[in-house]
Amino acid sequence: MLHEFSYVSPSSMDELLTFLEESGERSTVFSGGTDLFVTIRSGLSRPDFVVDLKGVKELGLLTFDPAEGLSIGACVTVNQLIEDTDVLRHYSVLRDAGSELATFQLRNRATVVGNVVTASPCGDMSSPLLCLGARVKLASAGGEREMPLGEFITGVKRTQIAPNEIVRAITVPIDHLDAVGGYKKLKRIKGHDLGVVAVAMITANDVSRFAISSAAPTPVLLPDFPANVEVAEVQKAAQEAISPISDVRCTKEYRSFMVDVFIRRLMEAA
Ligand SMILES: Cc1cc2nc3c(=O)[nH]c(=O)nc-3n(C[C@H](O)[C@H](O)[C@H](O)COP(=O)(O)OP(=O)(O)OC[C@H]3O[C@@H](n4cnc5c(N)ncnc54)[C@H](O)[C@@H]3O)c2cc1C
User: Fold this and answer.
1) What region, left, alpha or beta, does residue 33 occupy, with left being phi > 0 and alpha being psi -120 to 50 degrees?
2) Closest ligand 1 atom, CA of 37?
3) Fewer Cβ atoms within 10 A, N terminus or C terminus of the chain?
4) If we measure between CA atoms, which residue out of 22, 31, 23 comes closest to residue 5?
5) Whether this model's pTM surpasses 0.85
6) How many domains does the chain have?
7) Is residue 1 part of a domain?
8) Residue 136 CB burial class (10 angstroms; 0-12, 13-18, ≥19)
9) What is the number of the ligand 1 atom nearest to the C-alpha of 167?
């Protein structure tokens, strides 16, 4: 039977953050619910209060400013992101990765922030956001803080978020605006599936960046390379940086092999 909880729907940031401050670890926030309700149903999560973020209007904002970059509010869905004209024009790797996430119907609920906070090694949004130098903006009743995405995710399903805190937005700077690149994801089936291994790549301003998912406890961002780097050099750096495991979906050897294949394919296409 589903664990019993109270549904809470604040309509302002103040109301939301005050409630979280008072209820602490008894509360869990959600937006799309596509990850949270799976864990509640399986008994892995047993919150007393399930707090819906969608009533707070400012959390639904997706904005682009040519001087500041992109801001993806907590409730912005993956479909909103990948259909946005500024994202399509300036951050095409987000479109490439987002359109690989689950199905159209699921992407109408699933949020970009929820995907990042879940911190699953196979989450599709973290590696392209890492390539783009994304930052995470956190808010609590005590104030706000901000950190690079690479520091926010600390392990498998682990982040730096505190119980009284929410991710308000993820921001993407303009440093790699209009980068070319792409996202390659290995799945067990041709249709929609979680990634077995995936590689994101961008090239802009004579710099190439690569990030790899599902090949280590957290997504792995490789050091920057000059845009004319040899494929073998990137592959060598990738193999040194990843620590893949064998599981029900794939062997570690096949994961390593496919990382090399995807790096070569992405570089040839770019
Ligand atoms: C059938 C199916 C297929 C899927 N396929 C894929 C796939 O191909 N690729 C992939 O990457 N994922 C996939 N997922 C996982 C999931 O859909 C995504 O991770 C989704 O983006 C999560 O977003 P959400 O808004 O639904 O998160 P929610 O379920 O609302 O929240 C997820 C977690 O993050 C926390 N959280 C959410 N928002 C905030 C916030 N603003 N501040 C603090 N904490 C927050 C919640 O408390 C919860 O712990 C799939 C899921 C299902 C059910």
Assistant:
1) left
2) 29
3) N
4) 23
5) yes
6) 3
7) no
8) buried
9) 42
